[in-house]
TrEMBL record:
GO cellular component: a single term: membrane
Cell cycle keyword on record: no
Protein name: DUF1772-domain-containing protein
Source organism of the structure: Karstenula rhodostoma CBS 690.94
Localization of this protein: Membrane
Membrane-topology descriptor: Multi-pass membrane protein
Entry similarity comment: Belongs to the anthrone oxygenase family.
Lineage: Eukaryota, Fungi, Dikarya, Ascomycota, Pezizomycotina
Keywords: Membrane, Transmembrane, Transmembrane helix
Pfam family, one: Anthrone_oxy
Superkingdom to which the source organism belongs: Eukaryota
Parts of the chain that traverse the membrane: 12-39, 60-80, 92-111, 152-171
Length: 192
């Protein structure tokens, strides 16, 4: 356990905390988006297309989900390791470091049988690749989605930078306290 008495955790712990929070909230938001937005849209498609779309969402999401889970686990574990075991933050970070990887056995035991069936359905169903014959190339569904995605990535990057800065600001707060008439102030109190 690292001890720090300057009133501010070392930069490495702040970075780990920001990365852990960011990775875990990204994973939460990503999974919620898939469940509440992506899959309902996929369900509107005919079965052959829905199976293909589901497989694409799954294959694109899997590495991000694994990566975010690993980052969140490692960061919260590192933070917990460096905290005083007598306090609640240690217990919360330890619990988080144990909970994040719990999605792996859940996925293998509960979701994998369904995943296997969906992949088999996708392989068995054929798509009509001629649906957009005669449409200008730049106006095809794929071209429009590609263009939208590039613009959405810019919006996503802007949001990501803002989220990281907001998290860093939240983590940079210092507690107020006083000893024998001498007081330390933090946050907005430092502004006067």
């Amino acid at each position: 356990m690292t001890s720090y008495h300057s009133g501010r955790p070392p930069a490495g712990l702040l970075i780990a905390q920001a990365l852990g929070i960011t990775a875990s909230t990204y994973l939460l938001g990503s999974n919620a988006t898939i469940a509440f937005i992506t899959i309902p849209a996929v369900m509107e498609a005919p079965s052959p297309l829905a199976a293909k779309q589901w497989a694409k969402v799954y294959n694109l999401g899997k590495p991000f989900g694994i990566g975010c889970s690993v980052i969140a686990t490692a960061c919260t574990g590192f933070i917990a390791y460096n905290q005083d075991r007598a306090f609640l933050p240690f217990k919360l970070n330890t619990a988080a470091a144990l909970i994040f990887p719990a999605i792996i056995p859940f996925t293998i035991l509960v979701l994998k049988p369904i995943n296997d069936k969906l992949f088999a359905k996708g392989d068995a169903l054929a798509l009509d690749e001629k649906a957009e014959v005669g449409v200008a190339q730049e106006e095809t569904t794929k071209a429009l989605i590609d263009r939208w995605t590039k613009l959405h990535l810019v919006r996503t990057a802007i949001t990501g930078v803002g989220a990281i800065l907001a998290i860093w600001a939240a983590l940079d707060k210092r507690e107020t306290g006083s000893v024998g008439g001498f007081s330390l102030q933090s946050g907005a109190n430092r502004l006067g």
